[in-house]
């Protein structure tokens, strides 16, 4: 509200006497044009100075106004009481004028708005000046300085003098003393000098000639206005206030000295004409300049808005109430493909799909009632694409406030909607996966529980017990496969599937896959035909993972083909690739499912009636493994019930084939007489059940076994028992298996023991870390009995 220095006490203490001195000097200047009475002047400059001081620096400077006014009046042969009363009136005039401007107009000192100029005229020149005139003339009459008979004439002259002073001097002080400050370029400075010289010469020519009568004298007065217009157009309020002050000063000086057209009338009429002309000149210039300033600001705002609208990435559209398009920005062109020239004037329904048009009618009804709306909908581009958009619709009003149309701001949210749909689909698949996982994990538990009861039942015969043990073995293997699938989910999600490539033959990979898929194929009584080329096809691949790829395809075909179906595996060489096709006569794949058949957790038929088992990651793993081998896989189907075909393409090995190393297997060698040697074995596992069952198995094989359930206990037993073989869990409490292994390796007595990691951690980084810690082997729980026997037999030869 106030200029910041006004809040500083030092500034106030300095400014008050300076303002008093300025007010005193301006008063003495004003008294030089006093005619009717020594205390009443044609123009009173201190009114404008006091008002500007209040507006620029705040109300704290009122003592300076009162002091200056008192000194000015007391030195013009007035009683002290009269001078004091006049000073109070002058101070109240300035205070009330400034307060009304701030209170009722939100006044800007720059006078850049028409309302600021009108406020200055109404509240400062018309409403506040009567305060000073009333108090001043009344005090003069009460003090006997002026007769009561002249009260009306003196009051009018005082009021007009103060009003003229407010209009001439307050604007120039406010405009030049407030931001934005004047900063003209050299060319503008030259133009400003020409303007000043022109208006000065014209005013001197009009007001210093011999007085003339009639229309000629009045006509010459209008020559001032072109200069005022020039100042308003080119220099704004800075130029306007300066030019009007020059014109007013010359007009007043000439008239007071009996020159110019206003000296033809009687003295009172001459002064009135002078004051009216001066007021009209100043107010006209200020209003014109303010109007031009507002127009320029409006044009800048419109240009800025137009630039924003045109550069907006959003589509901004204007429509009439009848639905015809009247505005179309560049964003709308990019969104829809329609150029503005070809769509303006067309109905908005051109881009609205038929199923959404009733929605448009409802929205326009809300617009007619003045209600803005925001919603998400669909539009159709020129090329027929359906675009998901976020749309904000607002009513557009004319100058009288009537609603004449609507503005629409549309943003393309197609990617967001697709992402949300993908998240919903992923969430749905997750729920299906969890339900399937629960189902698949429960399936083996029922036969396991039943088989356990059979083994515990005293009435079961040996055949039933044998069958029960077989059932338990198969169901445990099924649970192991489920756990492996879950680990593959993690590896796929984190991109941590590792390949151990070597030179292999395609036939070896397919042979392993056929062995894996054979139980499921035979269980469903399918007929499987295999066609391989006669020539050996060499690949640089991971034999285990490639076998898993083909086994997954075969198992998938077996599961989704009704019993007694036809399965076919066919391999051919095409240029530098090998192409393997796995076909079936099964349930087929709907066209809508084909693009998603390789996605995680996707199954073609998830209904309870057709529960085929599995977690829905087999085909995802197929695609991942194919791509990691530099190949690809595609799915084809003619539709539901028409079977399916999967085509795998893999690059053939380059160069002459090297001798493929034999499949990685644990060495199998016995003692010289073929008998298993008896080892001292320490089993360490924090799971007591796991440790005990493994210990029982090893004892049945004839070994001497000790058990430990934590690291400290294991080290103590090892140092006294001196085991030749140590089975060691990694995730032990207190001390990990890695640390125990490192301590055993630095013990000279135990350094040569065979240390075998037995753990649930199966990732490559875990195998690498166990090797670095000193483990000889890394076995993943549950340990296969045959592998365990082969491992221990291999140690005979090493011993």
What does this structure look like?
By secondary structure, the protein is of the alpha/beta class. A five-stranded antiparallel beta sheet has the order 4-3-7-6-5. Strands 9-11-12-14-13 form a five-stranded mixed beta sheet, with helices on one face. A five-stranded parallel beta sheet has the order 16-15-17-18-19, with helices on both faces. The longest helix has 45 residues, at 267-311. The chain starts with 8 loop residues before the first helix and ends with a helix. 34% of the residues are buried. Residues 1-6, 212-217, 605-613 and 656-673 have low confidence and may be disordered.
Strands of the widest sheet, in order across it, are: 4-3-7-6-5
Classify the beta-strand content into a percent band. 5-15%
Main beta-sheet strand count, sense and barrel state: 5 strands, antiparallel
Q: Could you estimate the helical fraction of the residues in percent? A: 40-55%
Overall SS class: alpha/beta
| Uncertain runs | 1-6, 212-217, 605-613, 656-673
> What is the residue-averaged pLDDT?
84
Number of strands: 19
Rg, rounded, reads 51 Å
Total of helices: 23
Q: Rough shape?
A: elongated
Pick out its properties:
799 residues, alpha/beta, 5-stranded antiparallel sheet, 5-stranded mixed sheet, 23 helices, disordered N terminus
SSE blueprint and pairings:
Layout: H1 9-31, E1 34-37, E2 40-41, H2 45-57, H3 62-74, H4 80-105, H5 114-142, H6 151-176, H7 186-207, H8 215-221, H9 224-256, H10 267-311, E3 315-320, E4 325-328, H11 330-336, H12 340-343, H13 357-368, E5 373-380, E6 386-397, E7 403-412, H14 414-456, H15 462-494, E8 502-505, H16 506-523, E9 527-531, E10 538-541, H17 543-559, E11 566-574, E12 577-584, H18 618-628, E13 632-636, E14 644-651, E15 680-684, H19 688-700, E16 704-708, H20 711-721, E17 725-728, H21 737-745, E18 754-759, H22 764-773, E19 777-780, H23 785-798
Parallel strand pairs: 9-11, 15-16, 15-17, 17-18, 18-19
Antiparallel strand pairs: 1-2, 3-4, 3-7, 5-6, 6-7, 8-10, 11-12, 12-14, 13-14
């Amino acid at each position: 509200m106030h200029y910041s220095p006004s809040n500083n006490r030092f500034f106030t203490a300095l400014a008050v006497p300076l303002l008093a001195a300025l007010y005193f000097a301006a008063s003495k200047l004003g008294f030089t044009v006093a005619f009717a009475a020594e205390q009443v002047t044609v123009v009173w400059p201190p009114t404008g100075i006091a008002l500007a001081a209040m507006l620029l620096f705040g109300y704290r400077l009122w003592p300076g106004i009162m002091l200056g006014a008192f000194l000015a009046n007391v030195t013009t042969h007035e009683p002290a009481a009269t001078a004091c009363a006049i000073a109070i009136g002058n101070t109240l005039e300035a205070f009330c004028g400034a307060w009304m401007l701030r209170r009722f107009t939100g006044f800007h000192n720059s006078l850049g708005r028409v309302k600021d100029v009108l406020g200055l005229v109404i509240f400062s020149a018309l409403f506040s000046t009567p305060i000073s005139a009333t108090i001043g003339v009344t005090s003069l009459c009460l003090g006997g300085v002026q007769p009561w008979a002249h009260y009306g004439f003196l009051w009018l002259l005082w009021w007009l003098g103060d009003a003229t002073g407010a209009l001439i001097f307050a604007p120039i002080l406010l405009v030049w003393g407030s931001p934005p400050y004047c900063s003209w370029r050299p060319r503008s400075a030259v133009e400003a000098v020409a303007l000043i010289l022109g208006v000065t010469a014209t005013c001197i020519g009009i007001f210093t000639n011999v007085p003339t009568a009639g229309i000629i004298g009045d006509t010459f007065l209008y020559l001032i206005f072109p200069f005022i217009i020039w100042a308003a157009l080119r220099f704004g309020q800075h130029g306007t206030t300066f030019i009007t002050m020059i014109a007013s000063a010359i007009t007043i000086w000439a008239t007071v000295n009996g020159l110019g057209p206003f000296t033809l009338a009687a003295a009172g009429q001459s002064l009135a004409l002078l004051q009216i002309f001066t007021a009209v000149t100043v107010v006209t210039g200020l209003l014109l300049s303010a109007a031009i300033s507002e127009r320029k600001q409006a044009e800048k705002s419109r240009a800025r808005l137009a630039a924003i609208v045109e550069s907006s990435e959003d589509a901004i559209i204007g429509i009439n109430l009848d639905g015809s398009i009247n505005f179309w920005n560049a964003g709308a062109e990019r969104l829809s493909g329609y150029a503005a020239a070809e769509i303006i004037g067309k109905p908005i329904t051109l881009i609205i799909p038929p199923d959404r048009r009733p929605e448009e009618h409802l929205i326009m009804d809300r617009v007619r009632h003045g209600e803005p709306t925001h919603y998400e909908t669909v539009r159709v581009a020129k090329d027929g694409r359906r675009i998901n958009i976020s749309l904000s619709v607002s009513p557009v009003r004319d100058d009288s406030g009537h609603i004449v149309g609507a503005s629409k701001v549309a943003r393309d949210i197609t990617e967001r909607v697709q992402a949300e749909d993908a998240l919903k689909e992923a969430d749905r698949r997750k729920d299906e996966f969890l339900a399937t996982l629960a189902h698949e994990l429960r399936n083996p538990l029922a036969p396991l529980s039943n088989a356990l009861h059979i083994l515990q039942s005293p009435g079961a015969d040996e055949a039933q017990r044998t069958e029960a043990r077989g059932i338990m073995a198969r169901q445990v293997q099924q649970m192991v496969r489920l756990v492996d699938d879950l680990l593959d989910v993690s590896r796929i999600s984190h991109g941590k599937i590792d390949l151990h490539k070597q030179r292999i033959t395609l036939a070896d990979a397919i042979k392993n896959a056929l062995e894996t898929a054979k139980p499921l194929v035979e269980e469903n009584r399918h007929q499987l035909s295999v066609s391989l080329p006669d020539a050996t096809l060499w690949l640089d691949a991971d034999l285990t993972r490639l076998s898993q790829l083909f086994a997954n395809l075969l198992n998938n075909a077996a599961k989704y083909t009704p019993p007694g179906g036809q399965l076919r595996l066919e391999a051919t060489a095409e240029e530098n690739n090998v192409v393997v096709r796995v076909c079936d006569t099964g349930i087929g794949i709907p066209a809508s499912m084909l693009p998603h058949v390789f996605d995680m957790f996707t199954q073609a038929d998830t209904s309870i009636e057709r529960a085929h088992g599995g977690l829905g990651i087999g085909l995802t793993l197929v695609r991942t493994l194919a791509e990691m081998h530099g190949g690809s896989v595609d799915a084809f189907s003619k539709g539901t019930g028409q079977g399916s075909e999967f085509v795998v393409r893999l690059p053939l090995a380059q160069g002459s084939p090297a001798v493929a190393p034999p499949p990685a297997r644990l060495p199998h060698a016995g003692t010289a007489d073929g008998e298993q040697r008896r080892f001292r074995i320490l089993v360490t596992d924090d799971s007591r059940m796991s440790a005990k069952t493994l210990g029982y198995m090893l004892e049945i094989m004839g070994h001497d076994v000790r058990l430990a359930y934590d690291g400290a206990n294991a080290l103590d037993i090892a140092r006294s028992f001196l085991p030749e073989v140590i089975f060691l869990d990694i995730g032990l409490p207190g001390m990990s298996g890695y640390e125990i292994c490192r301590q055993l390796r630095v013990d000279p007595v135990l350094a040569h023991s065979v240390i075998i990691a037995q753990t649930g951690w199966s990732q490559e980084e875990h195998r690498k870390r166990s090797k670095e810690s000193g483990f000889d082997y890394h076995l993943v729980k549950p340990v296969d009995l045959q592998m365990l026997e082969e491992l221990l037999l291999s140690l005979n030869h090493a011993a």
